[in-house]
Amino acid sequence: MTLRVERDKATGVAVVTLDRERRHNAIDLETAAELTEVWREFRFAEDVRAVVLTGAGTAAFCTGVDRGVEVPQPASPYSIDDPLVAIGPKAGDLWKPVVAAVNGMACGGAFYLLGESEFLIASSSATFFDPHTTYGMVSAYEAVYMAQRMPFGEAARMSLMGTAERLSAARAYEIGLVSELTEPGELLPAALRAAETLAGFPTEAVQGTVRALWSAKQSALQQALSHAPALISLGNLTPERQAELFGSRRPGTEFRLR
């Protein structure tokens, strides 16, 4: 198992932890399948009324797809099989509120999860960045999700600057990506306090409000995401060339924090 799931029946809160700390909580195919399964399971779990999503350890919330994952792709440039496309709670048709507790790095494919959470609470040591362009890949799904949660210029800068910059937790809070900042040791308690509050309200009203909030942007989101497969197929360098670029740059040595 690459996920750790803990339920508190007394509070109605489940904590879902990406449990691959030695891989900076990167998502492999097993993790992707477990995430899809847990969101679908929670739809029917009456003892789960709110969820906290976090990553094991303090170094990373999630660093996206594991570089060791191999997914065969169709020959057509107009379609692509994305192993992360169904990892988010909304992709699993879960409308119970999800609070993301961001500890350490959140980058790349982590935005599939953050983009489908209701709101983010972050440790002061958290950082956000999108490495795609640095390695010759199109940031499509990630950029779309972040463009819906951040001022456009901030989303564009993060998506385009690759590994050259990281968005600090303080800056993420200033621009509204993060709703609350905590000291590192207070992150999970803060997220639990918020989730327990949500779980304590009538769940029908809470879920209805979640649906209402998402309906405000879901049409534009789905339309934008529909373009992603073609943009990725047409714009990505070959896997071999990506690997060359990845080997020539060491993430974490060239960035500046802002």
Number of strands: 11
H/E element sequence: EEHEEEEHEEHHEHEHHHHHE
Determine the N-to-C terminus distance: 36 Å
- Ranges where pLDDT stays below 50 over 5 or more residues in a row are none
> What's the overall average pLDDT, rounded?
90
* Major sheet summary line: 6 strands, mixed
The 3D shape can be described as: globular
Structural class: alpha/beta
Number of discrete domains: 1
Please tally the helical runs, counting DSSP H or I stretches of 4 or more residues. 10
Order the strands across the largest sheet as they lie in space: 1-2-3-5-7-10
Round the Cα radius of gyration to an integer and report it: 18 Å
CATH topology: 2-enoyl-CoA Hydratase, Chain A, domain 1
Identify the CATH homologous superfamily: 2-enoyl-CoA Hydratase, Chain A, domain 1
Percent range for β-strand residues: 15-25%
CATH class term: Alpha Beta
- Please give the share of residues in helix: 25-40%
The appropriate CATH architecture is Alpha-Beta Complex
Defining key terms:
11 strands; alpha/beta; 2-enoyl-CoA Hydratase, Chain A, domain 1; 258 residues; globular
Description:
The protein has ten helices and eleven strands. The N and C termini lie far apart (36 Å). It has helices at 29-44, 110-115, 141-147, 152-161, 169-174, 187-200, 203-215, 218-226, 228-235, 239-248; strands spanning 3-8, 13-18, 50-55, 60-62, 98-102, 105-107, 119-123, 127-129, 165-168, 180-182, 256-257. The chain has a single domain (3-70, 80-184, 217-257), classed as 2-enoyl-CoA Hydratase, Chain A, domain 1 (Alpha-Beta Complex). Helix content is 38%, strand content 18%. The protein is globular and about 50 Å long. The strands form two sheets. The protein has a six-stranded mixed sheet, with helices on both faces. Strands 4-6-8-9-11 form a five-stranded mixed sheet. α1 (29-44) links the parallel β2 and β3. α3 runs antiparallel to α4. It has 258 residues and is of the alpha/beta class.
